[in-house]
């Protein structure tokens, strides 16, 4: 009986010490910060999907007034197809190559949309169309939400990556295999801040 009690007490003490060590070395911080990056990333993906959902109606509306702008319209459709077919998995957050590919397809879609908006400027009847103006407003709002979501993701990743690199939590990172996560590049941020232009001067 005494030996059983001692064994249980010893086991409880070891677990308490182990939990204390994990907390002190930043293990719990890694869990919470990893979840924060996933949540921030989820919002980025949601906003890009919202943009993608607007594009078919936008293309069809423009086509009604500028059907001969086929090359530009097809470019937007192809870019949307590439962006929506890219498989978004949790591994993207730990794979710099996959993350770069995600940036690339979304950047190409932004560029195609920007060119479509430039073409649309040539059609006064299109700019006056109620459906087009509504889509323009929705796209404008979505682009703003994309920018905010990306900024929040960048901040979450920066916080996580600092924990991976700094002492003593870098030791915990090495033991448990935590590595820095990729983020949006400065060049990509410059591009997203200016494209697409959707303000037609109401």
Mean pLDDT: 82
Question: For the record, what CATH class applies?
Answer: Mainly Alpha
CATH superfamily: LemA-like domain
How would the global form be characterised? Answer: elongated
How is the biggest beta sheet arranged? none
The structure class reads mainly alpha
Radius of gyration: 24 Å
* Percent of residues in beta strands: under 5%
Helix content: over 70%
CATH architecture: Up-down Bundle
- Total number of β-strand segments? 0
CATH fold topology: de novo design (two linked rop proteins)
Question: Which residues form runs of ≥5 with pLDDT under 50?
Answer: 11-23, 189-202
Distance between the termini: 84 Å
Q: Treating each run of at least 4 consecutive H or I residues as one helix, how many helices?
A: 8
Total tally of structural domains: 1
Order of helices and strands: HHHHHHHH
Main location: membrane
GO cellular component, one term: membrane
Subcellular location: Membrane
Pfam families: LemA
């Amino acid at each position: 009986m005494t030996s059983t009690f001692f064994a249980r007490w010893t086991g409880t003490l070891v677990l308490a010490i182990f939990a204390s060590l994990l907390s002190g070395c930043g293990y719990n911080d890694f869990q919470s910060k990893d979840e924060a990056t996933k949540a921030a990333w989820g919002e980025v993906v949601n906003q890009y999907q919202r943009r993608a959902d607007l594009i078919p109606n936008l293309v069809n509306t423009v086509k009604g007034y500028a059907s001969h702008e086929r090359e530009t319209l097809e470019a937007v459709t192809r870019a949307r197809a590439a962006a929506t077919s890219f498989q978004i998995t949790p591994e993207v957050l730990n794979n710099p190559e996959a993350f770069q590919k995600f940036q690339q397809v979304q950047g190409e879609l932004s560029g195609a949309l920007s060119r479509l908006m430039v073409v649309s400027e040539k059609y006064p009847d299109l700019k006056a169309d109620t459906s087009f103006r509504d889509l323009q407003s929705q796209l404008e709002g979505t682009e703003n939400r994309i920018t905010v979501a990306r900024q929040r993701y960048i901040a979450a990743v920066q916080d996580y990556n600092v924990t991976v690199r700094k002492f003593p939590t870098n030791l915990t990172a090495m033991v448990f295999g935590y590595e820095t996560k990729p983020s949006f590049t400065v060049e990509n941020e410059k591009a997203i801040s200016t494209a697409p232009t959707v303000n037609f001067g109401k």
